[in-house]
Write a structure and sequence with these properties.
Elements (H helix, E strand, L loop, with lengths): L1 H14 L2 E4 L2 E5 L14 E3 L1 H9 L4 H32 L4 H21 L2 H10 L1 E8 L3 H7 L4 E2 L3 E7 L5 E9 L2 E13 L4 E4 L3 E4 L2 E4 L2 H11 L4 H8 L5 E7 L3 E6 L4 E7 L4
Helix pairs in contact: 3-4, 7-8
């Protein structure tokens, strides 16, 4: 299409031919002559018409490049926030205030990205599979108010695991002393792709490996007392609501989310046997 259009355009522009259509005469003239002939009674079409026309024949690759450039409005700052959070997950020595800022910025940017690219939320769920060690948390909003600050780097080993290969999806949440698993909750979860909201119920608890079935309301109370959950989960359970996380991101290295209690958290991917 483009090869055919160019000779036609060149011929029309070079010879400034005119032709009639209905009762109007159309004249094709070079753009440089338009200003001097602005009072002409004929309808004039300039070279800009052909420039716009030829854009419609642009290769798909050019269109995709333009779209990628537009995506950089959020992709580049996302990468900068991820860089800070990766460093925090590896060293646990990054400035806590910078980590909190990176989490807050990433939350806003990922909201924008997922709105523009719905498949980004699907990628978050896909990457969520596996085991994650809690590295950093601001604590719930209530806890922040109590201590007039954030909790920062989590002092003990807490691991969450997700499995989307089962029906329903499965979640586990455990606390360790060294490598010894002291307590672990398990149950099903659902994931809302539009809001990236993960709602779950804990239906069993294992204490030093001894597993028993429990009610979700009991899990909320135990979780709140052990640090595995927030007090808001207890209130939600009493209202018939499920505890939840609003997931921000998940990739091959780190995951981030805002909990139902309002706190932000950062996890590092680990091997399942850790």
């Amino acid at each position: 299409m483009r090869l055919v259009a160019l000779p036609i355009v060149a011929a029309l522009v070079g010879n400034a031919h005119s032709f009639s259509t209905g009762n109007k005469q159309l004249s094709f003239v070079p753009a440089s002559k338009i200003a001097s002939n602005s009072k002409s009674t004929t309808t004039t079409t300039s070279l800009f018409f052909f420039q716009d026309l030829l854009k419609s024949f642009a290769p798909k690759e050019e269109t995709e490049t333009a779209q990628a450039k537009q995506a950089n409005d959020y992709d580049e700052p996302i990468a900068k926030s991820i860089e800070i959070l990766n460093a925090a997950a590896e060293t646990k020595s990054e400035d806590p205030d910078e980590v909190v800022t990176a989490l807050e910025d990433l939350e806003k940017l990922m909201r924008k990205k997922c709105k523009a690219e719905p498949q980004a939320a699907e990628k978050v769920l896909e990457n969520l599979n596996g085991s994650w060690r809690l590295i950093f948390t601001t604590g719930t909003k209530k806890k922040q108010d109590e201590i007039k600050g954030t909790v920062n780097y989590f002092p003990i080993k807490a691991v969450q695991s997700f499995d989307t290969s089962t029906d329903p999806f499965g979640i586990e949440n455990g606390i360790y002393l060294g490598d010894l698993n002291v307590v672990k909750f398990a149950g099903p979860f659902d994931f809302d792709l539009v809001r990236r909201k993960l709602e779950f119920d804990f239906t069993s608890i294992a204490i030093f490996g001894f597993k028993i079935q429990i009610k979700p309301s009991d899990a909320a109370k135990i979780g709140s007392s052990t640090g595995l959950g927030s007090e808001s989960n207890v209130k939600n359970s009493n209202k018939g609501k499920r505890p939840f996380f609003n997931w921000i991101s998940a990739d091959e290295n780190i995951a981030t989310a805002r909990g139902g209690g309002g706190g932000l958290a950062l996890w590092k991917r680990i091997e399942a046997e850790e």
